[in-house]
Known about the structure:
Structural class: alpha+beta
CATH topology: Jelly Rolls
Distance between the termini: 36 Å
Number of helices: 5
Number of domains: 1
Shape: globular
Strand content: 25-35%
Helix content: 10-25%
Amino acid sequence: MHDPFFRTVTAPAFTRELIAGLAAGRCVAIRVPGFLPRAVLTETLRALESRAFDAYGRQRVDPPVMRFGVGVSDHRTAGTVADGYWDALAAQQKAWQGLGLPYDPFEKCREVLGADWPGGVSVGRRGGREMGAGVAREPNHGFQVHFDDALREFSGDLLDTTLVAQFAFNLYLSVPGSGGETVIWRHRWHPADETFRIPDSYGYREAVVGNAESIELRPEVGEAVLINPRYFHAVRPSKDSRRIALGFAVGMSETGRLFAWG
């Protein structure tokens, strides 16, 4: 039976009503085409294409996913953030500055995403220190079935505030001619799901979702997507060209503030 709230919404902007609806479970994803000016997309993509991308840790992330920047997930140790994260973050910030862009693309994304939200979107802090703003990801071989939930992945609060909802933001700079779809299943983590976890991996065997209802999102250049990542989701392999997106997590605090981190 179809769940009428398990749906995507396409709109010209991320409004306060839509973001609140995503947090409340009235939809599973919000899609906004033409999120940033085409010139910004082109300039950012060209800058990134001129640099080498690194891979996430090969043991944990297989098939490999390439990225430019540092994600906190690579520095999670025993449920906390390892001290090495901050040094890696400082190096990342220098690398982004080295692209020579006249703006911070993540700052532009936060400004537009939070334009209709009281207080906008700020970069989250941990121990008073600002977290990373985001990562450029290139999952040409796809992402395994997984979910994202800071509440379960970290002991205590990841940020210096308690989160009551979490979203995942992506802005597509380039997409393949075929493949690269994001699939979201109407299935959230249950303890029994751990029997499907791939050893030493962030992901699960696709059998974990069983016959759950699913939605497939075909990426489009210039489109921004905000999803509820606590549902199991995956990215299919790209067929013929690069799939590069700017991405970061967004958390909603107990007071209704929005905070981003990479």
